[in-house]
């Protein structure tokens, strides 16, 4: 089994839900040892929508994941482990909360 070194949760939003997403991300960063990334106003990396990345250690999955599930307020959240295999992490090991969105996995082709 691959060792999970951490997790990323990407909170997706648009112009109409920007403030809501910021509040969710800021609250997660306040409550947990979660690193909050930039509030992007354009798609970045493999993500099809505007997003903010939350980074956290593997031992926090048991508190961050249920908190996001209960507090995302209808926002889509894409969560994946960090194993060193970006393609598998984004394609095979992903957890979606809300609608599954199409990722641009061509960035990770081997």
Detailed description of the structure:
This protein is an alpha+beta fold and 110 residues long. The protein has one domain (6-108): Alpha-Beta Plaits, CATH 3.30.70.1240. Helix content is 28%, strand content 24%. It is built from three helices and five strands. The protein has helices at 18-31, 61-71, 86-91; strands at 6-13, 35-36, 50-56, 77-82, 95-97. The chain has a five-stranded antiparallel sheet with strand order 2-3-1-4-5. It is globular and about 35 Å long. It starts with 5 loop residues before the first strand and ends in a 13-residue tail after the last strand.
SSE order in H/E notation? EHEEHEHE
Cross-sheet strand order for the largest sheet:
2-3-1-4-5
Structural class: alpha+beta
Number of domains: 1
Query: Between the first and last Cα atoms, what is the distance in angstroms?
Result: 20 Å
Q: So how many helices?
A: 3
The biggest sheet, with number of strands, parallel, antiparallel or mixed sense and barrel status, is: 5 strands, antiparallel
The coarse silhouette is globular
Number of E-state strands: 5
- Taking pLDDT < 50 over at least 5 consecutive residues as the criterion, the unreliable ranges are none
Radius of gyration computed on alpha carbons: 13 Å
Output the CATH homologous superfamily: DOPA-like domains
- Looking at the structure, the CATH topology is Alpha-Beta Plaits
């Amino acid at each position: 089994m691959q060792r999970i070194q951490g997790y990323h949760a990407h909170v997706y939003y648009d112009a109409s839900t920007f403030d809501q997403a910021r509040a969710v991300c800021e609250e997660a960063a306040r409550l947990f040892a979660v690193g909050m990334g930039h509030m992007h106003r354009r798609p970045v990396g493999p993500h099809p929508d505007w997003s903010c990345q939350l980074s956290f250690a593997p031992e926090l999955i048991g508190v961050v994941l249920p908190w996001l599930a209960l507090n995302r307020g209808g926002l889509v959240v894409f969560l994946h482990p960090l194993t060193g295999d970006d393609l598998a992490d984004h394609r095979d090991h992903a957890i979606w909360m809300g609608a599954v969105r199409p990722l641009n996995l061509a960035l990770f082709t081997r």
